[in-house]
């Protein structure tokens, strides 16, 4: 999936970094290497581009926050800025990011493609697809890179997505709705 040009990726990373810095009272601290001035993402991304996105924060390779908005109903730049701030200060798994930690944070963005129902687990390609499971008020989402990191096959990936949703591991086989999506994943150094 190639949705964004390199300049748009850099601009989105800069906007995410600036939004977090403003929210925690820090300086952006890291400049993403580019030739020339950083373009405004709105000039690189069509104004009507609406996409879901997740922002992942890591310190020394360890997860420090990850928040996303999967629905494609808001402008991408707005989604990235909102999710970046939420990942920094509102991820319930971590205390709010402190300004003292800020210079150690690496950002990764995952821009989501269309969300499609999974009719057959064989259609899920590990490393290419992320998964969403829904059943009643339960909903869980895992990004494509999670299955690769944990070396899961497609069925285990579906089971772990159920666990994330607070459902039994086999809920995807017993009536829970399973969806797949592709994501364009990029970070400050890759």
Mean pLDDT: 91
Radius of gyration, in Å, reads 17 Å
Query: Largest sheet, described in full?
Result: 6 strands, antiparallel
Stated plainly, the CATH topology of the largest domain is called Glycoprotein, Type 4 Pilin
Which structural class do you get from the secondary structure elements? alpha+beta
Distance between the termini: 16 Å
Neighbour order of strands in the largest sheet: 2-1-3-6-4-5
The proportion of residues forming helix, as a percent range, comes to: 25-40%
> CATH H-level name of the largest domain... which superfamily?
Hypothetical protein ph0010, domain 1
The CATH class of the largest domain is Alpha Beta
Helix-strand sequence? HHEEHEEEHHE
Low-confidence sequence ranges: none
Strand content: 25-35%
Secondary-structure arrangement, i.e. CATH architecture of the largest domain:
2-Layer Sandwich
Structural domain tally = 2
Strand tally is 6
- Helix tally equals 5
Shape: globular
Gist of the model:
The protein is α+β, with helices and mostly antiparallel strands. It has 2 domains: 6-112, Glycoprotein, Type 4 Pilin, CATH 3.30.700.20; 118-183, Dna Ligase, domain 1 (2-Layer Sandwich). The chain has 5 helices and 6 strands, in the order H-H-E-E-H-E-E-E-H-H-E.
């Amino acid at each position: 999936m190639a949705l964004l040009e390199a300049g748009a990726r850099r601009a989105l990373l800069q906007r995410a970094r600036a939004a977090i810095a403003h929210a925690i009272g820090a300086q952006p601290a890291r400049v993403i290497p580019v030739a020339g001035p950083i373009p405004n993402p709105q000039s690189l991304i069509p104004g009507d581009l609406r996409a879901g996105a997740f922002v992942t924060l890591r310190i020394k390779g360890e997860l420090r926050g990850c928040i996303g908005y999967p629905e494609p109903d808001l402008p991408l730049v707005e989604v990235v800025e909102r999710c970046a701030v939420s990942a920094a200060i509102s991820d319930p798994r971590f205390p709010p990011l402190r300004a003292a930690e800020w210079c150690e944070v690496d950002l990764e963005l995952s821009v989501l493609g269309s969300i499609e129902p999974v009719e057959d687990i064989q259609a899920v390609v590990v490393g290419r697809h992320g998964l969403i499971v829904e059943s009643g008020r339960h909903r869980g989402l895992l990004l494509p890179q999670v299955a690769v990191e944990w070396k899961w096959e497609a069925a285990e990936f579906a089971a772990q997505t159920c666990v994330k949703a607070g459902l039994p591991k086999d809920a995807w086989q017993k009536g829970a709705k399973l969806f797949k999506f592709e994501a364009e994943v990029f970070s400050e150094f890759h």
